[in-house]
């Protein structure tokens, strides 16, 4: 195998990876002719030759499947395969004992990615010929749900799709007896897996609780196997194949049944735990951080020993139940965790009574209205994980918010700014996923906007009476220079890669230096709230520009503008409600020593603030792509840092790119917390409740089959959700060639 450094997305020509394979195979057989020991080994029976051709994959990622590089690579691979087949046949004297299988492991989208569920990614070609394989069969017509046959002009040739795990007997050129016996063996193999899984589960389950898989009872297994043997004996081979396929289907369903046997039990425990935790967090908010039940409380009753004793007994019973069934330790976590949680909830029974009494004093219409608004907000958040345009709907509603309140009359400029930036940010979820249409001019445009904004802000601050001190001005100039260098590196790297000259070393050094400095330089800026936030934006934007390939470079800039307006508009809402006076952002400082006596209690409007935070966090993650699958992100994003394939480094860089908007939102939220005189604990408890309600939604939406993207967007919050499906994946770019030597009966050795 070649060195990993050869897989360079910025190299002159990735086709050399495939030519390296072909050249080494030729050299291998040439040496075999002059080496008796090697010659004897490769003339033994059941030898597998495996050729992994990675060049097409590399060219597909680097240049897209529609590029000239990709098509030229295909032509060279076609020629190479033809030459290798001819060489094999010649070496073995055209003895007809070699089977060739040409296939791949997955496909590729038009924009050079894979991992989602589109047919271009999940269907794989399977072309076989040689020993033990049927010749192509002509047909007049055949029905399939796709149009691939017409696209490939193969309508008149029989297509045989294959499901992984089931022997494709229709491919085999052998006797009907051999096919029937092979299919029978295949069925028995899978049935044995089913039996082992059933035995394992039966041994650790109490007899009166065990429910067997009814569709494949012992008697049915016996009858099917007996019938199959009888059909073989009476030479009814078609019926044998059909019966064995039915048995395989039932055995696979049974395997899935026993694999997920404990799902209901574990699911109930998870739901109970989630509901208990949400209840406890809510009671903690009401009891310690709000005035909702003040004045309602009655006399404090002495705690009863019955409650703790009852929960201790419940815990012991659950642990004993799990112990006698020899359950793994994770089951104890799921089973026992709800016990202390619900004990903590019921200990606050007095708070629950006071809460009910307080809620009953509110007008029913107000209570129902608030509940519906909260429910609608949660559902929009949940749906945004599946449909990005729901973020657009939410941001559009945010844009109208000031006009539905008295904010418009008090702060017209702030309200208009909020509406403008909300609508501007709402455009991004409607854009194509990042990576499909790279456009460096948009990255350059985003850099110019950052420089223009920097100029305006620095000029404004210098006009103030107290002005900048030299150190602060130096920090800002350093950050502006970093932005300029980032723009240069992006443009220079793009030009170099187009000329196939690779990543310039100086560009690579500047990129890594910019990334490192972006984590340190903001700490050198002034602790004044506005200046610190602006310094964080400049530092993170210089890194984000290096990781951008198109319109997403504008996203953090627009998001930051909206965050700045959010800080201002929250001050206006507090002043409007009379909770506290408005403070100038230039007078507030990030401080380590905060006087907790200045913190106020929570009001109903603080739930909206916490909801805004969750919504902006979701927007930060999904605004330009889908974090659930790496398919949504383009490897070209990291080409300013490295082009040689390194999955962990590339993955870490792409993850940092995803987290940068998240960091901007969290910094803005910290500023909101400071300016509204709220403790972080109280706001984060509300965020925790909202997040747990969303997680409970996702638990019921768990999907454990399909593509990475299908599974990822269903969020594995539930237990025992490992995939039980057998899938065959496709890759028209990573093509593999397997040559197999058949045994004396002409059977293909797999």
Question: Can you tell me about this structure?
Answer:
By secondary structure, the protein is mainly alpha-helical. Among the domains are: 4-133, no CATH class; 177-260; 437-547, no CATH class. The protein is 59% helix and 3% strand. It has 27 helices and four strands. The protein has helices at 15-33, 36-41, 55-63, 68-91, 119-122, 148-151, 176-203, 218-233, 237-259, 263-288, 306-324, 329-336, 338-347, 349-360, 364-384, 389-404, 407-410, 412-425, 440-463, 470-498, 505-518, 529-546, 555-577, 605-622, 647-675, 680-700, 708-712; strands at residues 48-53, 98-104, 126-130, 735-741. A four-stranded antiparallel beta sheet has the order 1-4-2-3. Helix 3 (55-63) packs antiparallel against helix 4, helix 11 (306-324) packs antiparallel against helix 12 and helix 20 runs parallel beside helix 22. The longest helix has 29 residues, at 470-498.
